[in-house]
Specification:
With 251 residues, the protein is of the alpha+beta class. It has helices at residues 19-28, 51-59, 165-169, 195-202, 228-250; strands spanning 2-6, 10-15, 34-45, 86-93, 96-99, 114-118, 123-133, 144-156, 175-177, 182-184, 208-222. A hairpin with a 4-residue loop joins strand 9 (175-177) and strand 10 (182-184).
Length: 251
């Protein structure tokens, strides 16, 4: 595995794996347990937005992934306790913009996510409950976004007469003119659009050939609740557990 980028927000690596395995890892992200606001009780809402819309916005606010038990397996039997539920409170009065950082009782990732605009004497008061869940149940529990693509194989043959048409046609600046010779500037940026190939054909040449390579460029972007590396490790663990379950069933 070749690491291209490794930060809390984004993990990018290259590996020669089958697309089916890459897709299985991608899908496994939606089976990682994360925390999100799951239930909201409104005591006052004079704003222009319905309760359901505000509740939906609250559910999409990323929360830091604290260790909570599954409410379905908790000893409280689904009633909600400090072992499986985090209580957050929000209250505000206009004129003001209410931001995510004003939620009290939980640890939000981003403080400046606008929730609602209150005008005049409008007020809002609510209590929200955050619980664990998986993305398969609701996308608000998804820890991040995963996607992949094949790294291109670019061949520039001897028919190239340095017309520079292909260099100018590429929207990603993959190619460059190096002292009269066309070279690859950034292979990883190539998304197989073949704009350079078409430009080469228009000039009467077939000097460039592009095809998907065996290596895959895999990217994971975190919403902020978990570091991107942890999301990848958790997805691989979930996939392994699912494969083990299948193996036992077959046996």
């Amino acid at each position: 595995m070749k690491i291209i980028k490794n930060t809390d927000e984004k993990l990018v690596f290259i590996e020669e794996i089958e697309e089916s395995l890459a897709n299985a890892i991608r899908r496994s992200l939606n089976e990682i347990h994360t925390i999100a606001i799951d239930e909201v009780t409104f005591y006052k809402n004079d704003s222009a937005l319905y309760d359901e819309i505000i509740a939906h916005r609250l559910g999409l606010i990323p929360l830091k992934n604290e260790k909570l038990g599954d409410i379905k397996e908790c000893s409280c039997k689904g009633k909600g306790c400090n072992k499986c539920t985090i209580e957050l409170k929000l209250s505000g009065k206009g004129p003001a913009t209410i931001y995510s950082g004003e939620l009290k009782g939980g640890d939000v990732v981003y403080d400046k996510m606008p929730i609602i605009l209150l005008t005049g004497e409008q007020e809002i008061e609510l209590v929200a409950h955050a619980r664990t869940g998986i993305g398969k149940e609701h996308i608000k529990f998804s820890p991040g976004l995963a996607y992949y693509r094949n790294i291109a194989e670019i061949n520039i043959n001897k028919d190239c007469n340095d017309c520079k048409e292909c260099v100018q046609a590429c929207p990603k600046n993959v190619l460059e003119d190096d002292k009269g010779k066309i070279k690859i500037n950034d292979l990883y940026a190539c998304d197989l659009c073949e704009a350079c190939v078409e430009a080469c054909k228009k000039s009467g040449k077939k000097a460039i050939e592009i095809k998907p390579g065996k290596e895959i460029l895999f990217t994971i972007e975190s919403w902020g609740g978990m570091p991107a590396k942890n999301i990848f490790q958790a997805a691989v663990k979930v996939l392994g557990e699912n494969l083990e379950a299948v193996r036992k069933e077959i046996k």
